[in-house]
Specification:
Layout lengths: L5 E4 L2 E2 L6 E2 L2 E4 L4 E2 L5 E2 L12 H10 L3 E2 L2 H12 L42 E3 L5 E3 L6 E4 L47 E4 L14 E4 L8 E3 L1 E4 L2
Parallel strand pairs: 10-13
Antiparallel strand pairs: 1-4, 2-3, 4-14, 5-6, 7-14, 8-9, 10-11, 11-12
Length: 231
């Protein structure tokens, strides 16, 4: 049995906020389907897709993990966006933050060890502590537990306000490789959040890309990612 691949995310203070997300561990890859329906984190297997939100949460719990939360995703996204090596110019804020598998060069979700022929589809992003994370910016959308405007089950329960951390990003929607996100005031109540984008998202994909869909949806373009407490 292969060992699950987790990396450490450092503590991150969200820009424009006094809120610090404590250090935690996150799957280096989107989850795959392991033994007995438990989530696993490997480079060799394709992401677990065609799975709805509740089942993804339970798969994480069955393996002793948790589904990534909205604040945790934002912590990673803001951290990688501050690193020059994640920009196509090598300068933070200049050019484009790397976007991943998104240009329809493949027709299904790919395993972590797949190397795109197009260098523009950069799957890997580097955190401030040197850790590498795959597919925060494409390949498969990933279910996210909304702990900003969500209810106890992580389902969106109110409008996305202008002050919502969910809408925080260093650039406007669809600019500088950030990906798409909705306007303030959007009412996605009853939806579950998905982030990142999939292999056919094109310019919509990105580390800050945010969508909302019905939690019962099962799609070959939607997977999930697990976390566990920091060391």
């Amino acid at each position: 049995m292969q060992e699950n691949r987790f990396i450490t995310v450092p503590a991150v203070t969200l820009p424009g906020s006094a809120l610090t997300i404590p250090s935690f561990q996150v799957g280096q890859y989107a989850c795959t389907e392991g033994e007995s329906g438990k989530a696993a984190v490997t480079a060799e297997d394709k992401p677990w897709v065609n799975i709805n939100y509740a089942t993804a949460r339970q798969a994480c719990k069955n393996a002793g993990f948790e589904l990534i939360t909205e604040l945790q995703w934002l912590a990673i996204a803001h951290d990688v966006a501050a690193q020059p090596c994640n920009w196509n110019t090598g300068i933070v804020g200049k050019g484009r933050l790397f976007q991943g598998l998104r240009n329809n060069s493949v027709d299904s979700a790919q395993p972590g060890n797949y190397e795109p022929e197009d260098p523009d589809e950069q799957r890997w992003l580097t955190l401030s502590n040197g850790e590498l994370i795959c597919d925060l910016n494409g390949n498969v959308w990933q279910w996210v537990f909304d702990n900003i405007q969500g209810d106890s089950n992580g389902i969106v329960a109110e409008k996305l306000s202008k002050q919502s951390g969910s809408l925080s990003a260093p650039f406007p929607s669809m600019k500088n490789g950030i990906g798409w996100r909705p306007e303030a005031g959007s009412n996605w109540s009853g939806d579950a959040l998905i982030r990142g984008g999939y292999w056919g998202s094109e310019s919509v994909a990105g580390a800050f890309n945010l969508g909302g869909v019905w939690p019962d949806r099962e799609s070959d373009g939607v997977g999930f990612r697990c976390t566990k407490p920091g060391l």
